[in-house]
Design goal:
mainly alpha
Length: 142
Amino acid sequence: MTAAHTTTTPTAKEAWATGLTAFGAVMLILAGLLDVFRGIMAIAHDNVFLVTPEYVFRFDLTGWGWIHLVLGVVALLVGVGVFRGALWARVGGVAIAGLVIIANFLSLPYYPVWSIVVIAVAGFVIWALCVTRQSGRSALSG
């Protein structure tokens, strides 16, 4: 065989790893978008959120909006990096997903259903990025 004919098809394990990495990237981008939208809602229209009078972690809703907006933008950027196959993005994806979980837990009383959905999505991101080993290919390469 010549060097041009040495391409091999990926094994089932490699295909699963690529699929999980792509899944993690898509879910991280989705969590980022949800947090961006939530941040915009909190900054623009505070009256959409429930106000809990005696919540221990009570912050100004506009402040929460900026926190979620920044986390969302960073999650979007890191998600694109995961698609490109960057190791820093996988590590950063786990870290930012953890921060997204913490931020949504702390703001749970303000918008409970949305917070639970984003916490679940971020949990799937952590799982998907941690169960596969880093390969030399990007998530979208075949």
